[in-house]
Predict the structure.
Amino acid sequence: MELKICHLYPDVLNLYGDRGNILCLRRRLEWRGLGFSLTELPLGGGDALGAFDLVFIGGGQDFEQTVLLEDLRRGRGADIRSAVEDGMPFLCVCGGYQLLGRSYRTADGQECPYIGALDLYTLGSEDRLIGNYVFQLEPEDGGSLVIGFENHGGRTYLGSGVRPLGRVRKGYGNNGEDGTEGARYKNVFGTYSHGPLLPKNPAFCDRLLACALERKYGRADLEPLEDAAEEAARAGMLARLGAD
Amino acid sequence: MRLRVMLACAACRISRFVLRLFGRGGTALPGKIALRLYPGLLARLARPVDVIMVTGTNGKTTTAAMLRHMLEQAGRPCLSNRAGANLLSGITAEFVFSASLTGRPRKKLAVIECDEGAFPAAAQAIRPKAVVVTNLFRDQLDRYGEVTHARRSILSGLEKAPEAVACLNADCSLTATLHLDAGNPCLFYGLDIPGEGEAAAVSDAPHCLGCGARYAYRRHTYAHLGDWYCPECGRERPRPDYSVTSVAPAPEGGSLVTMAAPEGNLNFRVALPALYNVCNAAAALAGAGAMGWDLPAAARSLESFGAVFGRMESLRLGDTPVQIVLVKNPAGCDRALEYLASVPGECFPVFCLNDNLADGTDVSWIWDAAYESLFARRSFSQIGVYGTRAQDMRLRLKYAGADDEKIQVFDTADELVAAVRGLSVPVYILPNYTSMLVVRDKLAAAGGGGKFWE
């Protein structure tokens, strides 16, 4: 068994240790004797997403998102929408998460349409929501606590067409108001927790891998791994944030 | 007015005295108190002083120390913020300590290292004669948001000191293009050496700030540094006024460097190892040129320039040689890992990671540094980790290919020092900023060295 993973826009959406997420997916497949291949699709990259088993989109800088919107309009946006509807597993972080929504409105009222793959929108704000945070996945995704670091100016609000990825235990999440964090729709996992989200959240990483394996092979038997280092890193931060 | 200056200066001195009674070496609080009493204090104290400022992401401290060393060797006294107190409060305190009780400067020259975020306010108050910008890399993103944000900050500082000569790194597109946006007189320094360096896996500056197209390179030095150009709009690396044309390993250590400068060709030795210290030397010489110092003498002085404060600093604990290599961001970390990989024979590496405010509370950057390439090139029979985020460091090393069972987690710096003592192999400590302060302090205490502000 092998998963073909696509890192979309690594040339523009690559802030904050996003590589750690790819590395984690890779190692947790390799440690189980499962195959892994990585394709990086930069701006203007030709392949359609349907050829892959899991797509990762990271966060980026404001400056580079303008370059990106042009590429999305040239066809990649439609490609993402059809892959999402087709049940392709996506992990989208921060800027990549916002992009899948309907729109982004800047602090001075400028409306910028995004690709609309997910029923959510984002409002820009000058003051950023920054810090270590913890949220709990919904029961259907295993219900584990996810520890991350958020750093976003945008406040994201979910429409009725999507569910939250989890509930905030400590920190801000989507908007700092309604207690939701991230979004779930079909096999899309969107979150503000920027890279490296997965290494410290092995249960969440395995949930993504299982999602992709089930879709491709109809089953996912993931052997448990030795996670002592992961558990130690989790315990330290959970205790510090008072979320243990 | 005069009374306020005296009062603010006195408060600054007294608070430092009190802090030292309690064994603390801070300059931030005394400076803060002084500025609270008289916000215009820094501008007032700096007015009669010829100042060269150094800012940028990596190499500030070493470049500033090189400039200071040039002046010391020339017998010219200068004031300088030595202990890495590079925010507005620390810089102000330094000016206070070197002034008379009435606020008259006792030194005519200053070398000031300045944090990118503090640069606009500091430059506006100080009105430096020259500013050296070393480079821009991703660093401490939770504080400044983005690397383009740090660039805006530096630009705004340059605009507030329009007469300052900006000495810009031609090889860094983010830095070099400041000349297009700032009205300052500019000069450039850079590396024009043959050979191909290695680009970072993740570039911090992939796209042209002018038109958004992807930069192309005629040559890479390392990370996003090199001979860059934009194939779309034609922006390109400016020709360096201070151009390093050859670098060779020196038999006595460090690098033999040839530089073409407006003042003529220079041949000199940079005693510190590694190519990035040649970059720092080029930055310092461009700064010296902008200040009108004797350039051949400045270049010669680099031969006797040793390490500063945790930047490749070597010490001994009993019979164990210990080297401290400060790492704060992926670009600097990759250089340090390269150095560590090249160490012959067995050694004990210790990776220290804190997430205090001065470090940046976001430690994600460790996942962008190429630890994989270290473990692909060599192995260790024992590895140490320490710091408030030691467990995150451990996890990073595990994913990089280290054997988790060989990783020893030190809960305190005392435990770390105890483990280091008596080792027969050399120890390489790679700490970030505040973990470096703690470890260095403990090592100094165990080996009888001095405290850092002395």
